[in-house]
Design goal:
alpha+beta; Immunoglobulin-like; 2 helices; globular
Amino acid sequence: MKTGLKFLLLPALCLAAWSCSRVTAVNTTEPTNKMYNKQMIGDKRVIIDDSLNAKVGVVGVNEGATPDGFCRIQVEVANSTTSNYNFRYMFEWFDPSGMLIHNDTPTYSSQRILGGESKMLVALAPNKTAKDFRLKIVGEK
């Protein structure tokens, strides 16, 4: 009896795992009149790879600060294709004189964005002197 149950559960689990990994697009709904007030800032974009930009394009940049005075950045990115896409990103921070603030472990974070999805990439400055940033986005092969 237990062996027969295992044979029935295994295909069901495989089917569930396969159907979860097959999500290919996202539809969203949100309020028309939002209750928050974004602090959108102007940004300069350098686009080298148009294909990457279609899959992970920057929509806008929102800037804020924590109660302790640390700069906080939120970048909205969107996938304008119908395919899922894996990418990596990294924020670099600069002091008021434009000098790069050294990071002992500069690493890229991995993300997956679904077709038609938008998502927020969030970063907190490493210290209070960090006032500017640069976001790097790279595609995964």
